[in-house]
Amino acid sequence: MADPTLVQSIRRDAMPLHQASDYDAIVDAIGDSRIVLLGEASHGTSEFYTIRAEITKRLIERQGFRIIAIEGDWPSCYEINRWIKNYTGAAGSVRDALSAFGRWPTWMWANEEVEAFAQWLKAFNGKREGDDLVGFYGFDVYSLWESMEETIRYLRKTNSPELDHAIRAFECFEPYGRDEQSYGAAAAYALGESCEQEVIDLLRELRVRRMGEGIRDEEALSAVMNTLVAVDAEHYYRSMVRGGPESWNIRDRHMTEVMARMMDAYGDEAKIVVWAHNTHIGDARATDMADEGMVNVGQLARERFGADNVYAIGFGTYEGTVVAGRSWGAQPAKMRVPKAAEDSWEEAMHEAGVASGWLSFRGKDGEYDQHIGHRAIGVVYHPQYERFGNYVPSSMSARYDAFVFVDQTKALAPVVPEPVFA
């Protein structure tokens, strides 16, 4: 049973999320923050996506947010960006744009919940132009080869003087046959082989020549960002084979850097919404991640931009269903999410009677600062074992500014055939 005092505090402070007008209170609480981090406790829960979409719509309409950055690859997300902005040569339909998400786990972004949100974004942009368009971008680091290909495609299309440099730089990776693990092992252990300097030099050259126009020349900006991905992905895969926290830190530092560069590109008043897992957007210093030497976007954003400019909202559920894989690369399956563990944050929210609601932590540090288990479900999930590894000890009021909770949740709907229970 959860701590009765904690349950009583939640019951007193929780606010409902049952109808459209209830979301206005969240936007009011966000206030003048320029960076809003919207989490999720899994990558396969429908309500996490739909609630983030509702919050984001209001931030776009009421607060002037124009940048959306998600935990996805830049090249794949840029296809959505091109579609919602109606660029020449963009995908013919939203489903065609979503098909760009070919990297496992495809369901994470190629789902009906994102499809509906992208359609809303396209309709919103259809009434605007220029810098007032909303952009949709990926700020993750995995797309080493895809980003290199996109950079070369742009440089060839524009007959750019950097093309020969890019081809030479990326030829360094050819012996590894698009296998990140093979490259990482060779670069880390085999005679110190590395393509690092080649891609760093290319990034420097592109940045000097191409960043001046910012969002006004978004194709050039995309080429620079793809090269940044190549730089950091090279570092990430080289570090990953050694183990330890460094590859995680490289990834979250990259995410934070992409956020900063996109805000610079959009101008001094730019505002950004981020969609990523709780483990990225909740301040790592409020969890046991800090003891392991790990940082994350939530911590880095507060340090870089100032805590007053950042508003982080965690998400969670008590029980339901979720889409995940039994192993890395496995076919997606719909799985049961068991009732939350005893003495966990989710159990306390459930016992407080919160069916669908949210809780603000600002000004209430003393009541929600104790460390408590907080559930985190990844793309690989084993419900029968979750009590032994899926709960992160967290000081909730230090980790987040607010928390959204849905007691009973359901699996999201991939745009490919729906996964079966497994």
**Count of extended strands:** 11
Terminal CA distance reads 30 Å
Quote the average pLDDT.
Answer: 92
- Whole-number radius of gyration? 21 Å
The largest sheet is: 9 strands, mixed
The assigned CATH architecture of the domain at 1-47 and 281-293 and 313-422 is 3-Layer(aba) Sandwich
Gross morphology: globular
Organism: Paenibacillus aurantiacus
Pfam families: Erythro_esteras
Protein name: Erythromycin esterase family protein
Which SSEs are present, and which pair or pack?
Elements (H helix, E strand, L loop, with lengths): L3 H10 L1 E2 L6 H8 L4 E4 L7 H18 L3 E4 L3 H11 L9 H5 L13 H14 L9 E4 L5 H14 L5 H9 L8 H10 L6 H15 L7 H23 L5 H21 L5 E4 L2 H4 L15 H9 L4 E15 L8 E5 L7 H7 L4 E5 L4 H4 L2 E5 L15 E5 H4 L2 E8 L13
Parallel strand pairs: 2-5, 2-6, 3-4, 3-5, 6-11
Antiparallel strand pairs: 1-8, 6-7, 8-11, 9-10
